[in-house]
Amino acid sequence: MSVSKPPPPHSHFAPPPNSSTSSHLSIPPSSSTPSSPAPSRATSSAPRSLPPPSPIKISMQEHFAINVCPGPIMPIPQISDFFPRFHDFPMTPPPPREKKILKEPDFGLSNGGETDGENKEKERKPIEEDRGERQEGVDSDDDDETYLGTLEFTLLFDHENNCLHCTIHKAKGLKAMDSNGLADPYVKLHLLPGASKANKLRTKTLKNTLNPVWSETLMYHGITAIDMTTKTLRLCVCDMDRLGRNEFIGEVRVALKKLSKGESKRFKMGLERITQNKDINKETVEQGTPVAEEERGRILVSLCYSPEKSCLLVGIVRCAHLAAMDSNGYSDPFVKIVLQPDMGKKSKYKTTVKKKTLNPEFNEEFVYEVPHDQLAKKTLEISVWDYDLGMSNDFIGGVELGINAKGVRLKHWFECLKHIGKKVEYWHALTQQGAPPEPPPQ
């Protein structure tokens, strides 16, 4: 009688299909599993196949309870655990570091207490000197000590025309002032003492160069022989900055007394940074009247008596170094001329107004019909004013030429009367002469 076998169940407990029945080891079903009941009928020694195992059923509560218990609650680590300086509670400060004192070597044998102390003092002196030299070396590493460049220029004093010609040739090896390693240099000139906008001259600006070549001539008018002995010319090289303030590179100074009349002298000097002494400037200001007159400026006047027309020709050529009367540091000057005693409207003249300048050039001539024999009784009053729109004009300075004048003014008037038909030009310093009377106090 043959018994058909069912297909093998999908379980790892089932034997392989090629294995014999004698080698098969049957495992009895567990009594705890109610879903696999025992066979109801007895069979012979033929093997029996196991039923497929049923999947394990777990409740939802048991599923969430597996590996969920975190155990004991641990404190959350804080940043103070890793960086102790952030602790909220006060901590004892760390002990100060001990400075290591280098023991000075004693190479010699000390005979006694006094000799040992002397040896230590001798050894300390070179060490302190070495430290001082090192400190000086560190302090001297400053911008003032670095190389700033050189400047080449030529000076010529024209005694006949009272002019100082300053020819700026070139500069070489200037210090870089811009971020691109270059500079936009220009040169400005001042006469010391009394540097101001009135005696300031300036060259053009050259872009992006450390070796500029200007080849530009600037002129100072109204320079007398006295100025050549007392004045000093300062030439400053600066870097122009459109967005900010112009930067100072360096300067040179030349005393005008080093120049000879009619002889040009070429200079090649290294730029430096000179600290200005305010006390010296105060002394020059406190000396008295000459400085006060110089601050008002000078005027170049020409006189000529024409015998053909029987008239006096008065020429107002130019002014130099005028005082600044406006808030912008300049003036709007013009000149008034009056021949005294008053001859009516024909005796008063006025030049045109020159805007925003302290060195105006007029080149205007005025005619007074006066017999030659009456000039000795006349006085020519010349005054310089600053024009103000809608306000009273400001008096800058004046000068009087006539028989009652003194010094150069009297000399100028006499030469005009003596040399008939010849034009005589002289520079005159402006003073308080011709100033309007002050209103009485109320």
TrEMBL record:
Signal peptide positions (record): none
Biased composition regions of type Low complexity, renumbered to the chain: 19-48
Molecular function in Gene Ontology: metal ion binding
Compositional bias segments (type: Pro residues): 1-18
A single BP term in Gene Ontology: spontaneous neurotransmitter secretion
A Pfam family assignment: C2
Region of interest (Disordered), ranges: 1-56, 86-145
Basic and acidic residues: compositionally biased ranges: 96-106, 117-137
InterPro entries, A to Z: C2_dom, Rabphilin/DOC2/Noc2, Rabphilin_Doc2_C2A
Keyword terms: Calcium, Metal-binding, Repeat
C2 domain mapped to chain residues: 147-269, 295-428
GO cellular component, as recorded: presynapse
Protein name (record): C2 domain-containing protein
